[in-house]
Amino acid sequence: MYYPDWVSATFPPERLDFSRIDYVDFAFAVPQEDFSLNWDGSADAPEVLNRLVNLAHSKGKRVKVSVGGWTGSKHISSAVANDDSRQTFVANIVDLYHQHNLDGIDIDWEYPGQPGNDGNEIDGSDTSNFLEFLRLLRSALPANATITAAAQTVPFAGSDGKSLSDVRAFAEVLDWVLLMNYDVWGASENPGSNAPLNDACNNNSQPKATADAAIKQWLAAGFPANKLVLGLPSYGYVSSSTATQLRQLTLRSEDSGQVSFRALMEQGALCASNSNSTEVPAFVGCGGFERSWDVCSSTPFLRSESAGQLVTYDDPDSIWLKATIANAYGLRGVNFWDAYGDVDSWALVDAARRGLGLIVQ
Predict the structure, then answer these.
(1) 82-105: average pLDDT
(2) pTM exceeds cut of 0.90
């Protein structure tokens, strides 16, 4: 589960329920132009990380630091570009690992050989350089250190910009790859699912960007199922739209139209439909919002005609379906972006755990 350093004031690490979590990814350490690392958040990030590590270790759980992120991938291309830069970059990561008593490193490069955030460096050799960097990082870290990567729904891009057909070499140095099956569609006048399960209607303009397609694409490229983790979102997008289907209250979005599951509850667009704590929680639209289900993507959406808003998001029903398919394919598990997006009862996390067969109910 990803824990962004910028939520620590509102959601300190002490609020995490480690009985539901195996790993926590602390985000983000951001590569600088000189290949050093800085924090993408508050100045007290190192202190928060130390608290998180101590808490996790006291519960027998593990912590990785995630390097990069959407706005933090600008200099990764040059950091892995040659032997000298790789040596410097790896040395800085290893120092971070030991300084904070970490259990692993997650590389969230968005994206090797592909455009990401505006201003990102990009090179046709990014993916081959990335592999050499990972090999060096593997040799420099302790043998029991976990090394993971976050990736798109399609395998890494080759020098021609097309997805590699064989990524088995990456499986030799990575413990697992997280498939970021979210942000497929953001806020739009013509909204689509943030994190589609599949393309059940065969009409998706991005058919490769679903959970089912992502798994199949990485498996076809030779990556083992037990080294794949399906990424799940605890957030969605608020769109100003009068649409009644996908591709009294006005919701506040948090960033680029994003809204967390927690915020949907707190702002009154979603309500729990049962109060019995022994029941699996169900959620319905309220405050002028009506919940509907998109059969093409197997995800819910909320619509308010009076507010002129449509919200694409995931709830326990859609999360359960995604975790179920991950389990059926034999994947290593699932991971959330992010911890703060779920509610205090961990409704989304528990839905995923049910889908993985970790909770029988």
Answers:
(1) 99
(2) yes
